[in-house]
Amino acid sequence: MTMTFDLSAIKSTIIPHKVEGTIYAYGTAGFRTKAHLLDSVMYKVGILAALRSKKLNGATIGVMITASHNPEEDNGVKLVDPRGEMLEQSWENYATKLANANDGDSLAEVVEQIVTAQEINLDAPAAVVYAHDTRPSCPELVKCLESGLSVSGAKATGYGLKTTPMLHYIVRCINTAGTNDAYGEPTEEGYYKKLSEAFMTAVAGKPRLSTLHVDCGNGVGAPKLAEFVKYLPEDVLSLKIINGDIHTEGKLNKDCGADYVKTRQQAPLGSEIAPGDRYCSFDGDADRIVFYYVDSNGVFKLLDGDKIAGLAAMFIMELVQDVGIDTLKVGVVQTAYANGSSTNYLTNVLKVPVSCVPTGVKHLHHEAEKYDIGVYFEANGHGTVLFSPEALNTINTIEAKTPAQQQAINQLKAVTDVINQTVGDAISDMLLVETILTNRQWGPEEWDQAYTDLPNRLVKVVVADRTIFKTTNAERELVEPEGLQEQINEHVAKYSHGRSFVRASGTEDAVRVYAEAATRSETDELANKVSLLVYNQAGGVGKPPMMP
Ligand SMILES: CC(=O)N[C@H]1[C@@H](OP(=O)(O)O)O[C@H](CO)[C@@H](O)[C@@H]1O
Ligand SMILES: [Mg+2]
């Protein structure tokens, strides 16, 4: 492998060529599309990752190849910044420009533009680590990425099959090694050890709960969770994996996994859920989780990201109080898709500040950093809790005056380690929920009692050009097409607890319509009316949308 940045090689290495007629965009979750369109994108992402690392004086950058909850034939890629966060937003444009550059001279020109704009020293070192999910297209795409890393002279280290959050964890560990802020051992084993040890401390002395059934969506979460449980004695946590087949083609996310359960509001294929059982589902790259159960009447009940945020905020606020450091400001960050009842619960029952930001984890993450302890979750189950350096310092240095306070301190410390603070993480979030339920000795019903979700509906409307939809107020209001918001408002006003908003998806070629209201029938009616409005007034394509 060359260890220099080789512009002529960049120009001439055209095995992975751009597919004519395809326009790529680094969207909400990086590049994501049909796998066969991604060869050149991977190559260019390799170059970009190397440039980003050089810009940051050789700090290690991560590259994750995954399409998360998308169908198996899709794939995608996203970059991870040195502290394990998503790529800085200002670089997303470079990613898009590179991906759309033609082979040869035009690619070299875009590279040169980035180098000039960012004043990158090409002689600086570059280090990139990468991993992939279980999709059959990954090995080929990994090779394309490696060729981009090679022509850029990056020190490249492949970590093989990993969950997305594991790669984020590894990146942070590498970059913080040897500092006061060291995050852990940068290996899969280090990750398992850190989480399992913290979990054992967090539930010490409490009786174990019943078995938790985990639907892994036939994705990477399955083998990783199977490995993880080896680090925990059975009397601490009992797990049973369902949908753990990563070898049969066509099964990934098929009728199972977190996205399926959340959007269909029903149990996944392969589950035999009965009253009293506890279930959760991961998505295809194990960065999202939702829980669910059936009540004594056999009714399916979802405990989604909003419910997890409420549970976590409640528990952490109480712990902070027990420790005696309630000067720390706890806040919760949501998006417009959060159920209205959850926002009401957080604001009026827990009395915790709530911010609403645009869709996409990067927005939530940055907003959560504004609090001492920031809890953020998308309704679909992607989220985590961030502790500011000052908060961690306070928690780690406070001296206990009573045994009860000491116990609260130990527990809060353990909670900060159970949580993967780099990004939403299904395994870590599962442990956080289990920590809280075990401490309270709660089943899912008790957790669910905090508030009752308003019935809600999410509809996709396909239109000729979704870019005409422009929003404001954290995506809750349309600015364009002109006049549409007023018409939506007129419908909403007719429903008790009615709320509806419309925005273009950042990951699919569709417009999303969200509606909630006091009853199921009113919700469906509202969703129907707003969807038809969008379809009729903004270039609907295909059959008009209709509710079930
Ligand atoms: C309503 C919804 O669930 N939207 C999802 C979806 O974004 P859209 O921009 O709505 O397509 O995919 C994102 C990436 O996974 C996720 O962050 C987001 O929450
Ligand atoms: Mg995911």
TrEMBL record:
Domain Phosphoacetylglucosamine mutase AMG1: 189-290, 304-442
The protein's annotated pathway: Nucleotide-sugar biosynthesis; UDP-N-acetyl-alpha-D-glucosamine biosynthesis; N-acetyl-alpha-D-glucosamine 1-phosphate from alpha-D-glucosamine 6-phosphate (route I): step 2/2
Pfam families associated with the record: AMG1_II, AMG1_III, PGM_PMM_I, PGM_PMM_IV
Positions bound to Mg(2+): 68, 283, 285, 287
Active site positions, chain numbering: 68 (phosphoserine intermediate)
Domain Alpha-D-phosphohexomutase C-terminal: 478-530
UniProt keyword terms in alphabetical order: Carbohydrate metabolism, Cell wall biogenesis/degradation, Isomerase, Magnesium, Metal-binding, Phosphoprotein
Cofactor: binding comment: Binds 1 Mg(2+) ion per subunit.
Presence of the UniProt keyword Phosphoprotein in the record: yes
Catalytic reactions of this protein: N-acetyl-alpha-D-glucosamine 1-phosphate = N-acetyl-D-glucosamine 6-phosphate
Gene3D superfamilies cross-referenced by the UniProt entry: Alpha-D-Glucose-1,6-Bisphosphate, subunit A, domain 3 (3.40.120.10), Alpha-D-phosphohexomutase, C-terminal domain (3.30.310.50)
Example GO biological process: UDP-N-acetylglucosamine biosynthetic process
Domain Alpha-D-phosphohexomutase alpha/beta/alpha as annotated: residue spans: 55-98, 122-178
Coiled-coil segments on the chain, per record: none
GO MF entries: magnesium ion binding; phosphoacetylglucosamine mutase activity
CC cofactor: Mg(2+)
Family classification: Belongs to the phosphohexose mutase family.
Function comment: Catalyzes the conversion of GlcNAc-6-P into GlcNAc-1-P during the synthesis of uridine diphosphate/UDP-GlcNAc, which is a biosynthetic precursor of chitin and also supplies the amino sugars for N-linked oligosaccharides of glycoproteins.
Protein name listed in UniProt: Phosphoacetylglucosamine mutase
